[in-house]
């Protein structure tokens, strides 16, 4: 009687995988699934690659619009595991109609994003990028590099969930006055001395404003032209959450007027198709982004706040559990569209 050969594990296609992530993803799925890691993002052009795969894995810069989801469903895909907390890139109503299960990572290390938000704030406050560029040219002048003590000044935290709370703890360590705005007050932030105020007051009184809310219909362009005009001329604005929270064209208009000590942006409202890709040999067609990066008081990074080994390990671990839960018929807090 011949020896039975075990069937090979079913393959998963993972889109938008960074080179640092690939070995972590392959190791996490070992023993459960083979993983085909692709550096291309899922969109209308790449969706046919998923044909024949029951489960696919996506990143936040993949575009899962109704046409992409229809292609996935037609190709046999039944489950989408998003390696991110945000899900505004997925047409959830269409996924539900097509019977596609969708899960995300509801939380991971809040310190990764909070610490990076502070990295941006300190970098623009103390002119670190300009100073580094100068010293590489052996220009050791201090002209134009003067920053400000943050101790005793006011930090305005818009969104005081896990990440906002972590940001607030660091602000408290700096000895800052704390103002918060959110739909619900966080008891931990209150214990740190935070005062919850209307958004308008927070913007008007804060020396540093940091955004930590999700991108939802009610928060889209939360920082619009009026909000920007209400801020102090010498304020610092940091966004490490979602690009769509800020009206970027309005921000450019304010910067052209010479406003703000510094702006640190890890996200951009039109980042899809740009961030995580090498565009250095191409003409930049996005006029707003091209203008934005020319301001000496603006620092733009490419959606890397979450990108620590600790956070990525947690994200991938949660993604593996989401896939195994789907296969076992279990439902967790990470499920956005349940199995039909």
From TrEMBL:
Report the GO molecular function annotations: D-lactate dehydrogenase (NAD+) activity; NAD binding
Q: Which UniProt keywords apply?
A: NAD, Oxidoreductase
**SUPFAM superfamilies assigned:** Formate/glycerate dehydrogenase catalytic domain-like, NAD(P)-binding Rossmann-fold domains
Does this UniProt record's set of keywords contain rRNA-binding?
Answer: no
Taxonomically, the superkingdom here is Bacteria
Q: What InterPro entries does this protein's entry cite?
A: D-isomer_2_OHA_DH_cat_dom (IPR006139), D-isomer_DH_CS (IPR029753), D-isomer_DH_CS1 (IPR029752), D-isomer_DH_NAD-bd (IPR006140), D-LDH-like (IPR058205), NAD(P)-bd_dom_sf (IPR036291)
* Residue ranges of domain D-isomer specific 2-hydroxyacid dehydrogenase catalytic in the record: 17-336
List the Pfam families.
2-Hacid_dh, 2-Hacid_dh_C
Q: Which residues form the signal peptide?
A: none
Domain called D-isomer specific 2-hydroxyacid dehydrogenase NAD-binding: residue spans: 119-305
Q: Which family does it belong to?
A: Belongs to the D-isomer specific 2-hydroxyacid dehydrogenase family.
Q: What is this protein called?
A: Lactate dehydrogenase
């Amino acid at each position: 009687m011949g020896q039975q050969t075990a069937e090979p594990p079913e393959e998963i296609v993972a889109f938008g995988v960074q080179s640092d992530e690939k070995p972590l993803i392959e190791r996490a799925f070992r023993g459960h699934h083979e993983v085909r890691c692709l550096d291309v993002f899922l969109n209308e052009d790449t969706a046919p690659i998923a044909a024949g795969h029951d489960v696919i894995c996506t990143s936040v810069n993949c575009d899962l619009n109704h046409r992409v989801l229809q292609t996935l469903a037609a190709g046999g895909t039944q489950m989408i595991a998003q390696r991110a907390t945000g899900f505004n890139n997925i047409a959830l109503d269409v996924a539900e109609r097509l019977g596609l299960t969708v899960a995300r990572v509801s939380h991971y290390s809040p310190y990764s994003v909070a610490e990076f938000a502070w990295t941006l704030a300190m970098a623009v406050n103390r002119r670190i990028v300009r100073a580094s560029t100068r010293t590489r040219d052996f220009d050791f002048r201090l002209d134009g590099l003067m920053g400000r003590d943050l101790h005793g000044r006011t930090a305005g935290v818009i969104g005081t969930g896990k990440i906002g709370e972590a940001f607030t703890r660091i602000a408290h360590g700096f000895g800052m006055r704390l103002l918060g705005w959110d739909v619900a007050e966080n008891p931990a932030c209150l214990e740190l001395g935070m005062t919850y105020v209307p958004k308008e007051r927070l913007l008007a009184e804060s020396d540093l404003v940091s955004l930590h809310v999700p991108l939802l219909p009610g928060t889209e362009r939360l920082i619009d032209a009026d909000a920007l005009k209400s801020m102090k001329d010498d304020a610092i604005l940091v966004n490490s959450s979602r690009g769509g929270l800020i009206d970027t064209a309005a921000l450019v208009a304010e910067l052209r007027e010479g406003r703000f000590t510094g702006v640190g942006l890890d996200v951009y409202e039109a980042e899809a198709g740009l961030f995580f890709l090498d565009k250095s040999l191409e003409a930049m067609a996005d006029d707003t982004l091209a203008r934005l990066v020319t301001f000496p008081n603006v620092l733009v990074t490419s959606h890397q706040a979450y990108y620590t080994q600790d956070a990525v390990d947690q994200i991938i671990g949660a993604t593996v559990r989401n896939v195994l839960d789907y296969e076992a018929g279990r439902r967790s807090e990470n499920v956005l569209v349940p199995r039909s």
